[in-house]
Amino acid sequence: MAGRRDWLLQQMGITQYRLHRPRVLRGEVAVRLRAETRLVIVTSETLSLTPAFMQDVLRTLDLNEHQLLILTERQLSMLPAPVPCALWLLGVPAEKQYAGVQLTTPPLAELIDNSEAKRNLWQQITTYDSHFFSRA
C-alpha cells in the first residue's frame, strides 16, 4: 500500500518529507554531551559511584564525577552517533560498536564479585590506555 501511495505522490509531483529524527515527535530528545564528558556509563540499573570498586576505576582513569554521564539503556539510542568519548556498557549488551573506545562488562553487582570479569575490564582499559591517559 505504501509503495503505491509513494508512486502516486511522485507521479503528481508531490514532494514527501521524511523525518530524520522521528523519536523527537514521540517526546524523546537527543542526549547532549557536555564538553568535559570523557566517559559515558550506560547501565540497566541504578548506579552508585560510592562503592570502592567504582572509585578505583574512576581513580585509575583519572576521572571525576563531573567528567561522567550516566545513562539508562533506553537513553543509549539517543546519544549522538558516533559517541565522541569513551563508553562503558555496564551490564548492557553490546549490540554494536557505539564509540571508538567501548568497554563492556557485566552488571556492577556481578562485576565486583567476579575476578575474571574485573581482569577483563582492566585488559579493556589497558587496550585503550592512549585514549584515557594522553590528556595532561
Automatic annotation (TrEMBL):
Gene3D superfamilies: DNA polymerase III, psi subunit. Transmembrane segments: none annotated. SUPFAM superfamilies: DNA polymerase III psi subunit. Keywords: DNA replication, DNA-directed DNA polymerase, Nucleotidyltransferase, Transferase. Part of the beta sliding clamp loading complex, which hydrolyzes ATP to load the beta clamp onto primed DNA to form the DNA replication pre-initiation complex. DNA polymerase III is a complex, multichain enzyme responsible for most of the replicative synthesis in bacteria. This DNA polymerase also exhibits 3' to 5' exonuclease activity. This is DNA polymerase III subunit psi. It comes from Tatumella terrea. The lineage of its organism: Bacteria, Pseudomonadati, Pseudomonadota, Gammaproteobacteria, Enterobacterales.
